[in-house]
Design goal:
The complex is a heterodimer of chains A (about 290) and B (about 325). With about 290 residues, chain A is mostly helical. Chain A contains eleven helices and two strands; from the N terminus they run H-H-H-H-E-E-H-H-H-H-H-H-H. Chain B is mainly alpha-helical. The chains are: A mainly alpha (about 290), B mainly alpha (about 325). At the A-B interface, helix 4, helix 8, helix 9 and helix 11 of A face helix 5, helix 6, helix 12, helix 14 and helix 15 of B.
Amino acid sequence: MILQMIINGLLVGGLYASIGVAFSLVYGIMGIINLAQGTQIILGAYLTCAMVQFFHIDPFLTLPVSALVLFGSGYATQRCIINMVGKGGVVLTSLLTFGLNLALINIILLVWNADFRGVNPSYSGKNFEVLGVTIPYVRLAVFFVAVLATVSLHWFLGHTQTGNAIHASAQNKRAAQIVGINIRHSYALTFAISSGLAGGMGTLYVILKPVSPFSGADLLMILFLVAVLGGLGNIPGALLGGMVMGLTDSFSVLCLGMQYQKIVLFLGFILVLIFLPRGFFGRRFYG
Amino acid sequence: MADRDPLGRKAIADGNWKTRSIFAVLLLSAFLAPLVLRGYWVRLLANVFMFGILAQGVNIIAGYCGYLSLGNILFFGLGAYVTAVLMTHFAVPFPVAFAASGAGAVLFSAGIGLLILRLKGQYFLMATLALSELMREIISSLDITGGGRGLTLPMFIGGAAAVNNFFYYLMLLLMLVCTFCIWLIDRSYLGLAFKAIKFDEDAASVMGIDPPPYKTAAWAISALFTGFAGSAFAYWMGYIDPGVVFEITPSIKMYLMMVLGGAGTVWGPVAGALFIELVSELAWSRFMEYQFLIVGSILVLTCLFTPKGLMDLLGKKITLSLFTKGIRENRI
């Protein structure tokens, strides 16, 4: 039973890690708290639901579409809106994303209504057993796709010219501009990557759990916790944070029951902020 | 100093007779309004004043100190539930429950604030969001608060007009007291310390201001008035449940009102509350399904075009470049 819980936690943790990375990236590079991130994930989830409903395709195949739609809208959002108040400090940018979040919730409500939506692929009940532990294929696939996305993002930031440009604009805006980096573009690209990742993770999330337009608030708490545990702006840290988050999730259900799951989550987050505000690694990596 | 705070300090305290008399007329008409207005307008204005209190609450901590307490609605809910629980389960009279609500909000904010206000602003705003969610979850799962079913408070004794008038004057007085406190703070050492923390926290601590106690004080004052507003709201509505007092719209509206009116000014948030509530009642209350979209979009537009608030525009020549100034200054 304990082993089963650990495996469940780790499998969900992969998804949480990826969500946390998306949030952490934007904070690490631009110092912006993206309060709309939770709802962006929900938007990705709804896009998947719509595509599955209309085209009757496998939900995993809709991941690139969700990711691309969110990538594009994320780029436009940063380029046309958030960049305009970029120097205004954390107060102004946070209020801006707070407003964007509310507007985005309303758009989702208008297009789809307030009902819970989910997808149910035909193979969702299938699983295999190893050492007495039941592992559903869906959860395993979600785990691998999420970890793959996170790892390839990390590689992209570290090993490509665009990635280096993004790093450079985080470390020193003016110096980056002097060597020919268009920081408006690289900021917009950062936000687009983060949104795209969020959209793709929305696809994976809705495969595991049904969502409503307001589920973004819970997801926001999860990604806060993951990002802070790993150290804001730190991608490998967020991976570890996601695993811890997943384990907490599955053990709180086991020990206290479903109804206290959220209380444990929020209380845990506040305790982490009080006692471990810099996360496991003690320092920020980007920016 | 003069342009920093156009209406708050100079115009009313040492200002000329013209602004003073406009202010006196406004105040007088606010006190006399229930005598001539119909019940609908009295209720609407009482609601405006309630939002004025909430906006002033976030003004102290966010407008003056620069710490975004995005979950400030938690004190509203806390105040409402302290009053509701005391009045239904312990038959406590309203004034006592009202005082207890304020005290509860202050104790809670000071206790938590000493712990989480050591953090930088971005961590604090995440913490307050989590705290308000936590409070909602705890209230929803306790028996004494009625859980998700909510609580029905004892009725206010009196006719419809008496109810309207009582809550009108209660909200109006609370808002005026709150604004008066901010006016006092604005003129005092405390206000200077708050502004120094907002401007540059490290520099402030070098100058001998120890930020955590000041930030906690700001948050406690904010909590006090927000808790009072919640208490009055609970008694006014007669029924509360977690969905009503922790609604998502008010928690964003109070920030919208503060920024639109002018963060860190004495009267700005009140003006913002008046503007937003009246416009929302007259213009978009018929489009309920677009409400989030409208409130969210106005908040975004305000951050873009009038980040210093409408109060900042007073007495200036209105030109297009006045509205693009924020973008020119803040654009990356």
